[in-house]
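Lab meeting prep.
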Amino acid sequence: MKKSEKPLFVQNLTEHLKTATSFVLVDYTGLTVKMQQELKKRLREIGADMSIVKNTLFKRAGVEAKVSEETLSDTVLSGPTALVITENDPIAPLQILHKFAKEFELPHFKVGIIDGSFRDKLALEKLATLPSKEILYAQTVGALASPMYGLVSTLQGNIQKLLYILKEKSRMTG
């Protein structure tokens, strides 16, 4: 990258960091070009983007975007770093990265910001194994609706018994 292009790159990256629902820094050491292309393709399908960033440029953009200090530390920003960023579902890119890492044992999480909160490597791995928001919503609705269905079926059973008794009574008297 030319020196004249760097300020514009930092400015664009700053805007992306400000509008993102989540971004994750990963160590992509060992990923072949073909593997990178496959990972980028999978991430694009869910509205996420992966790009390789220079640590110094990311740090500049991070400071301007007021990213947490833990994310910008020298221990995190060392070695090859790729940025996975999304403005959509904040957990979906983690799930894609996790599945990809299971298949190829690469890349490795560094740190990330999910819905405005700093997450370390361990927290990112835990979040990556969660079901999607839609599935969690469905499970919650199912858990809330289950007792109501039980109540309705119990009440229906009592009404059916009452009808049965009334029919039997009407046969005996009729």
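Slide two material, second protein:
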Amino acid sequence: MFHLLSYGLYVIASKSAKKINGCIVNTVFQVTAFPPRIAVSVNKENLTHEYITKSGVFSVSILSEDTPMKFIGLFGFQSGRDVDKLCDVKLIKGIEDCPVITENSLGILEAKVINQVDIGTHTLFVGEVMHGKRLREGKPLTYEYYQQVKQGKTPKRAATYTAPISDVAPVIKDSASQEYQCDVCGWVYNPAVGDPENEIPPGTSFTDLPDDWTCPLCGASKSQFSPK
């Protein structure tokens, strides 16, 4: 029944001293009109959670339906501890130099934290909106559209994550011809073709790929592939 609740896809960004980071969440909602306040649920393991806690500020970027999967993969499946997510992304500096992602965004909100609630794996940050702006026209990217049309997957740290059958049942045994599909962007690894771009020759089974091999389309790790 949880899947009948409506969600969107948003990039939440924050800072810690001179460091900046952002991540995708699907739980952002308005809680009051006067004064305007919003709440966002962020996993405690996310680097962005640490930055919001330290700085007390965060921004919300409302993504459009035409947002590329590679962009979603960067903010939804990559960690800011491993990669600089914002180095090649269009952004502006908002209140107290908090980063605000403008790329693929229909609109932005900037908020100061006025309360936070420990809800287990996540923290619910309540923020008073200090600034908001519509950037362009378009349709917001809903979670339903992301899953059904874009065939997107849910990362394990998401508030709405549901364990797939493969997490609770035996995994299909790999074979030399078994194809694997990227959970992030949908790219399919075909052993008969290999991955010439990354010098993986034809005939290489998925299990024989190097542990540090990544999706040539979106950069997802090997662990983010499932048998097709």
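Talking points for slide two:
Helices lie at 47-55, 69-77, 143-148, 165-168.
The mean pLDDT is 90.
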